[in-house]
Write a structure and sequence with these properties.
Layout: H1 3-27, H2 33-42, H3 45-55, H4 58-62, H5 67-88, H6 93-100, H7 103-114, H8 121-142, H9 149-175, H10 181-198, H11 209-235, H12 238-241, H13 248-260, H14 266-301
Helix pairs in contact: 1-11, 1-13, 2-5, 2-10, 2-11, 3-10, 3-11, 5-9, 5-10, 6-9, 6-13, 7-8, 7-9, 8-9, 8-14
């Protein structure tokens, strides 16, 4: 275990994913969403397969006992990706990122409904607070008169995308009972690439050299980000590294301002703070029993003193 290394990898992964999202926002103005989904998924396979080959895990990546489970996870995940990319094409980067933070809170609801997980009261309070933050974040887009219907549609896509992301996480929890991490990651990228390719029937456009380069970079960044994220959990517990995923808000604010001259409304920032606070509270509250148990185990493992 190396907590500092795990945290650094999580922050790096979040930064890489935010750059990828910014590039998606740039290219989505000219390239159909399905084409972007294909590039994001297909080109991400190259760094992922290279890592798996280096570790000798190719066999584990293709071995599966539940192909239908992977298809379900892939279908839900592709819907989440399409909606997230559609949102990035319509609303500022920081707004889309902030709304996406609701996915972990929605996972609590879906896990209770579909996995039968027991949800303690503090989680429900956190979900309620987070949903209040969502209303605050959405208000600049859907309340007090629309700037454009596109902005309202983008906000709706971001929220629905977060819901599908939560659904994908619930399906991943099911798969982890029998499937390796390598298989879950590989099959999702492969199925998402196939689903993106299928949208060619609805009309793709041949990208110019600049857009083709961006699409290639989007895919590679997605694959590298996935590797960094997976590695972060190899060096530190989830309760340690997970809070640093919220650094995406900082990166999205900086990149949104630098690349697009975007300054999010105050209400979006306030709502994001509420959602992030609710998420951090759940992580902190979940960590307390784990820390207490670890301390108790450490005490129990101490050798007994000499007899008096």
């Amino acid at each position: 275990m190396n907590a500092l290394k795990g945290i650094a990898l999580q922050i790096a992964a979040t930064f890489v994913f935010t750059i990828m999202s910014a590039l998606v926002r740039v290219v989505s103005l000219r390239v159909p969403t399905g084409e972007v989904v294909f590039a994001r998924s297909f080109f991400a396979l190259f760094p992922l397969l290279a890592l798996l080959a280096w570790r000798g895990e190719i066999g584990a990546a293709v071995r599966t006992a539940h192909p239908l489970g992977h298809i379900a996870r892939g279908t839900i995940g592709v819907c989440a990706m399409i909606l997230a990319f559609s949102a990035l094409a319509r609303i500022p980067l920081a707004d889309a990122t902030a709304i996406g933070f609701t996915a972990p809170l929605m996972t609590v609801l879906l896990a209770a409904l579909f996995l039968g997980e027991k949800v303690q009261a503090y989680r429900w309070w956190a979900v309620a607070a987070g949903l209040g933050g969502v209303v605050v974040m959405l208000w600049p887009h859907i309340g007090g008169g629309f700037e454009t219907w596109e902005r309202a549609l983008g906000a709706g896509c971001a929220l629905l995308g977060a819901f599908f992301t939560a659904g994908a996480m619930v399906q991943v929890r099911r798969l982890t009972a029998t499937e390796s991490t390598a298989a879950i990651v590989f099959y999702f990228q492969a199925l998402a690439a196939v689903a993106g390719l299928a949208t060619a029937a609805w009309g793709w456009r041949l990208p110019g050299a600049g857009d083709a380069g961006l699409l290639l970079l989007i895919g590679f960044l997605g694959g590298i980000g996935q590797i960094l994220l997976t590695e972060s959990y190899r060096y530190a517990p989830a309760s340690v590294v997970a809070p640093f995923a919220y650094s995406a808000m900082l990166w999205s604010l900086l990149l949104g301002f630098i690349l697009f001259a975007e300054v999010p409304p105050l209400l979006v920032l306030v709502g994001a703070a509420v959602v992030i606070g609710a998420g951090l509270f759940v992580i902190w509250r979940e960590r307390r029993p784990a820390v207490a148990q670890a301390e108790a185990e450490a005490v129990a493992a101490q050798p007994a003193g000499p007899p008096s």
